[in-house]
């Protein structure tokens, strides 16, 4: 498809309203998603965020947009420095290990790679330039210890994303840590002057010897790759304040332009009603689950199948249900390949119309994936019934197969289904002979051939569409 559809609507956190999506440049989308802090293996709560962003990108691409997607890697911040010191490994080596693990994990989850994965440590000059601009424009000041802070009372729109009123803020008070709550909103660190606790992590710059704060990293990297104003910015709801609020304050004060048009935030993955988080110790990494024998695509399906703005309780039983849902779709797709019945007299075409409209309208409506999946499973049920009755022609089955593959460019869960199981020539000949015996109504010969095939591990079943075979399971 080349024509981007104008019918997508998103709930924009900035306005708290559902808005029709209009990109800055026709047919193109520039989006930034906050990536992992590479201080540990990502947990599946983090992957809920990355999978939602994958679904969003795939839906935009399905709809005809060319998407430039930037995901940063936070490889210097309070957490990475603390982690590398604990393990007594240089910061670069420590974060590289977790960055590699992250790329392995997203591949297993069938997450499409971003266009760029900038690392914070490769963009210190851009951060320094941005901080200097903020100082020149009067939005930032140096404290006594040499650190540089953003003066939140200078930016009149501070609080516009998280809906925090400036009057409630303790302006002038300062917070140096990267993470803090809304109640603690105050001037935040753009540049942290070196202290002995930072060890050998520092850069000698025009701002002095030190390192950047976390928030400036994303402002600098997003604008470096996507321009001063871009279309979409995503992240988990926990990043809305202070991280995204601060990104807006930094970027808009520096450029005088609107930073981002649409802000999309995913809700949390919960465990027994609480946010899955490292500090609560209630998390699973992808590796934990794969080690227990769970299929990564079932994890993908489970984390994708609830609307991104709804909280979702993770359970292992949920993974079993996800596995069966995927199997249902795969079996259906496999079945289509040997359909060779009568024409359905428009029934297949009408089911295709219903599912394409239902799936598309639901996804256009702020990525309502659960409704889209509902439409898809209704369709599978209806076409399965037609297949059972032998009224799906080869041509119709092909068009259903094409549509299933196209839906799968969005869902990424069906993949390649085998066209035909490999069968030894000898077995093929016996199946052929058995068909001839059946045609000749020589039931005794047909049964004997069935037994011989069974001994070779080939199970033959007679169905209204003729004999079907599959290889006997050995496990
Ligand atoms: P981090 O590596 O901590 O910067 O987090 C990476 C992404 O995961 C961010 O977008 C977070 O908001 C998101 N995130 C963290 N915990 C959860 C959770 N339990 N459920 C959903 N998203 C989360
Ligand atoms: Zn970020």
Q: What Rg is obtained from the alpha carbons, in whole angstroms?
A: 28 Å
Assign an overall shape.
elongated
Q: Report the biggest beta sheet as strand number plus sense, adding barrel if it closes.
A: 6 strands, mixed
Distance between the termini: 43 Å
Mean pLDDT: 93
| Total number of helices | 14
Spans where pLDDT lies below 50 across 5 or more residues: none
Helix content: 40-55%
Bound compounds = adenosine monophosphate, zinc ion
Q: What share of residues are in beta strands?
A: 15-25%
- Can you count the beta strands? 17
Structural class: alpha/beta
Describe this structure in a few short sentences.
With 475 residues, the protein is of the alpha/beta class.
Structural features:
475 residues; alpha/beta; 6-stranded mixed sheet; 4-stranded parallel sheet; 17 strands; elongated; binds adenosine monophosphate; binds zinc ion
Structural write-up:
The protein has 475 residues and is an alpha/beta fold. Helix content is 44%, strand content 16%. Strands 5, 6, 7, 8, 9 and 10 form a 6-stranded mixed β-sheet that branches. Strands 4-3-11-12 form a 4-stranded parallel β-sheet, with helices on both faces. The radius of gyration is 28 Å and the shape is elongated. The two termini are 43 Å apart. Zinc ion binds next to loops.
């Amino acid at each position: 498809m080349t024509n981007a559809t104008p019918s997508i609507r998103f709930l924009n956190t900035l306005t708290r309203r559902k808005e029709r999506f209009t990109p800055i440049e026709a047919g193109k989308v520039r989006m930034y998603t906050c990536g992992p802090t590479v201080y540990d293996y990502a947990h599946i709560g983090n992957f809920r965020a990355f999978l939602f962003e994958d679904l969003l990108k795939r839906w935009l691409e399905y709809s005809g947009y060319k998407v430039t997607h930037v995901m940063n890697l936070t490889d210097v911040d309070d957490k990475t420095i603390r982690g590398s010191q604990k393990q007594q490994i240089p910061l670069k080596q420590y974060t590289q290990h977790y960055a590699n693990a992250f790329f392995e994990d997203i591949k297993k989850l069938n997450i499409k790679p971003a266009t760029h994965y900038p690392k914070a440590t490769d963009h210190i000059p851009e951060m320094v330039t941005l901080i200097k601009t903020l100082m020149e424009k009067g939005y930032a000041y140096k404290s006594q210890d040499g650190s540089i802070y953003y003066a939140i009372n200078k930016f009149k729109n501070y609080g516009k994303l998280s809906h925090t009123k400036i009057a409630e803020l303790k302006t002038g008070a300062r917070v140096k840590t990267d993470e803090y709550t809304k109640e603690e909103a105050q001037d935040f660190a753009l540049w942290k002057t070196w202290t002995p606790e930072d060890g050998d992590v520092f850069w000698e710059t025009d701002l002095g010897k030190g390192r950047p704060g976390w928030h400036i990293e994303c402002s600098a990297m997003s604008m470096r790759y996507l321009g001063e104003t871009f279309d979409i910015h995503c992240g988990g709801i926990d990043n809305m304040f202070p991280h995204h609020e601060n990104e807006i304050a930094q970027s808009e004060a520096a450029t005088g332009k609107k930073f981002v048009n649409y802000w999309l935030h995913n809700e949390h993955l919960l465990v027994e009603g609480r946010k899955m988080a490292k500090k609560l110790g209630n998390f699973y990494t992808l590796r934990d689950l794969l080690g227990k024998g769970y299929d990564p695509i079932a994890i993908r399906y489970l984390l994708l199948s609830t609307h991104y703005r709804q909280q979702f309780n993770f359970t292992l039983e949920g993974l079993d249900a996800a596995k069966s849902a995927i199997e249902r779709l795969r079996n259906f797709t496999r079945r289509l390949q040997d359909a060779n019945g009568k024409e359905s007299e428009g029934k297949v075409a009408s089911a295709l119309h219903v599912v394409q409209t239902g799936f598309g309208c639901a996804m256009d409506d702020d990525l309502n994936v659960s409704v889209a999946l509902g439409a898809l499973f209704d369709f599978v049920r209806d076409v399965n019934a037609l297949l059972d009755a032998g009224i799906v022609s080869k041509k119709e089955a092909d068009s259903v197969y094409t549509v299933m593959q196209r839906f799968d460019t969005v869902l990424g869960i069906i993949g390649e289904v085998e066209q035909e199981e490999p069968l030894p020539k000898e077995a093929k000949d016996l199946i052929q002979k058995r068909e001839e015996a059946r045609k000749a109504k020589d039931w005794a010969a047909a049964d004997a051939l069935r037994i011989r095939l069974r001994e070779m591990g080939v199970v033959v079943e007679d169905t209204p569409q003729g004999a079907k075979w599959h290889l006997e399971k050995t496990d």
